[in-house]
């Protein structure tokens, strides 16, 4: 499948604007870059996408949906690592005050220099290497490239300031005193982790299970361009699937075993060769160890199925594995579902194994256990270092403080206990800090020893496999992949949206004005409404050709036209958007044909479904 | 209908928490007041509510949905009046640093004092008057009451600081430079107004039409209490219906004419009498002028229908008209749809006539016309003051500045022209400011006169009727109104949600464990999924009674139980939640009975629908 040409992209964007699929927000105020409004057809498409996502993931897997606030207190995001690590590197033009995101600036500049005829082969190879691995660069590495390649302001050619790190979260304050610092969430995931205990409880303590959230998240992009693909406020859908770290198999993996997916592995990327993904079944990929485990593989296959269902072109999709240093601070393996558009490959879905990172850090910070307690069928022996206090002396020596000291001792890790045991052996005593105070303990007060106990319960922090969707980006990719231009004299554009995604399913119109038509229109409307088919009446005073063109631009798959024959015999024409073919039948037959195609995926084929209707010659 | 007792409310809240309908956000971090998470059944209920709202309003009226960002630049909200007027009055305890919202503190204190046995009749009357009209009090008025009634900190009795005004918007900054000040939107309405021209265009220039948005809005409450009813981040659904200011009739008003609604008018409230609303048809209310116009009345009736459909008790609802000084700065008439809960009357839907306020101020600020151009069937004569320049002298005198001066003159209002005309008559000249410079004009350069022209187009700024829903509050009211306690020995609680609102429609369970049951479970699951009925399997190892109780607490209307007879004859029992009655039939008959009741509102009656099945004696 070829990429869209520039003129096609212009045509696409102007169609999207003219039909109000979307528009820059606050446009009459000059707009704010990175913020967009969806208009009526855009909203309807987004609603359809959300509904299909819920059916494909939440309903099908009995996921537990959670809906939390975007306002998130500082502490939560400090713990999760976002305060320190959710940053981009940027540089400023000291003369104009303009800011640039460093990695994007480097990419843009090097891509331009590669087109230069005089570039020597070694330079070319170096620059290509940078471009394929830049996603994994640290700040100092980016700075080095900036210097080595003398990268200045792309507009003014001014020398830029050195790189600085910029946190991408929007900050605000909660409450009248202004003392509670908060951010707008950068992802919905944290809200799910914090509810882990409640989710586990309503799942009756059983694991694995998944939670899911659909909602807006925020990212204060440094200088957002490329329209809907890089925005500051975006709709996400995220799944957190909690699994036993010792068993990441998936009960339904055999159902997707043979799903064939284009995979661009880490090894392939690091080889520096031409970057063509390898087509492989997910079964093979997991078997060979390329994809880390079954659960990750299962979701990759399900994501693939989902994207093809909603109109993504199968030849413009790949899963790309993250490079080692590109992965988020929490991930152990990560595959990005990338979609090819006229802007290049766009990351739309991330499938990451976050391991036990989030639950561990939140549990540590809050002191609340976030674990699964599994009853063991056969109890297990466990040998470990323990500390025991001599109750008699301990209590009388420390009085009210005894309990607190005991609790501090009980929290020592195995390593800490070993160290204390050695001290005790060597010096006969050791010290520990309790509430800032140094407490001395000797062997008359405590014993540290190895002890073997029988464990009836296995307690563990689960791992998390996370498929995370940028729904806004996916919407843009649907536009890009479904936009087509008719090969005729007028070369008009239309959207070949799948039936389930199309904003409006049917438009109903009349060939001209006639006193008998309104009653027929009403009858058809009622019949469509009864079957819950979303339709629009196009009763404008334009030619039938213009009406067809307008509704094609909205991607409306079916058109019903009332004409003079309808008055005589209650027949209407039914037009299909992509082929522009028309058939004729009674109102009842036409509507039930549409109903069948819409509500039964097996019967969406036009030829089969309209078999009983009469073809119309145009 | 009696209000809930305190013990019932405790039972309600503990059920909501235990079943994870909702929970305080960030609970393991100690929580943030005014922020809540919805858990799985809460999300599902919210999804159902949104879907029903879209069907009842957007689909039924062909409204144009818009989805815009929450981040909103300063200028937009400065123009809309929110920077200056979206405030509450608060006072601070200088010793503890605690903040109180002044009106709530007064209400709370006076309500307590009214319970005092020694209060004299005149004081009582005064306090009651304050309580019924406090929503309209200005800051100084609140201050006066605080002083007159010696209102101190309710906990410590410390004297409080004088009132200050607090803006309720969350502030943040957009972009790397941090120079673009922004707020989280306090309502979705502004995003719709700013798109007026685009909406009008895709509606083919025709008016009236309505736009709608569903999304989160924010309000930095001073000290939020009362759980889900007063939150800092909330889901809204807002409709902006644009009408001709000279014609606020509604084409479908006759369809709702006889809808009977309890109305508490402004006059009734100001009378100081017992505040019982008057039941009246909306037809009468509009006819008598109590409700300002048909469109406002139409929406009030539609709101009323909607709320009763989703489970609000008709005897615990009223529309209360805003007092004159209580209305928002933009409104000309406003009725609050209020719902009675154990927390008192709660404002859940506002129906306001915002007149032309918003479009006017945004148009003025941006210089962009936000008007409707109506082609007149018969052109109209229009006589008005005009200014004409003497091109010959004017151009040679002012040179490059001529155009600018002419444009300033062309923007004079009728009043300004009359004033200038008088000056010109009296002094032979007048002055005007052009870019800060004073320009003198005499009668050789300009003429000001009355002129009659023929108008073919009428251009006007439309008025806006706005029904605005707090969906989060409505959800709490549904909980409150649907919670019931069985009159039996165990007095267990359950939710009598309407079928369309219930989070889960069917639970499927088995009487015990048996090797034949899983296959039957699978068969039933497939049949339910095919009919798009949302169900849960309850295969826990508990007694059937406990399973019923648990699913009653989730408000699941139907239960299918597989027992040993099922193996023999493929029959199952079907249980109804409210009556706990059971019938028996084949799997096919039971599922098609449920399907009928769920998808056809006319067939939701249990007795009629289960007529063909056999009653089970329990």
Automatic annotation (TrEMBL), chains A, B:
It catalyses: 2 ATP + H(+) = P(1),P(4)-bis(5'-adenosyl) tetraphosphate + diphosphate. Residues 10-372 form the Aminoacyl-transfer RNA synthetases class-II family profile domain. PROSITE patterns: AA_TRNA_LIGASE_II. It holds the Pfam family HGTP_anticodon. One of its GO terms (molecular function) is glycine-tRNA ligase activity. Keywords: Aminoacyl-tRNA synthetase, ATP-binding, Cytoplasm, Ligase, Nucleotide-binding, Protein biosynthesis, Transferase. It is found in: Cytoplasm. GO terms for biological process: mitochondrial glycyl-tRNA aminoacylation. Belongs to the class-II aminoacyl-tRNA synthetase family. Homodimer. This is glycine--tRNA ligase. The gene is GRS2_1.
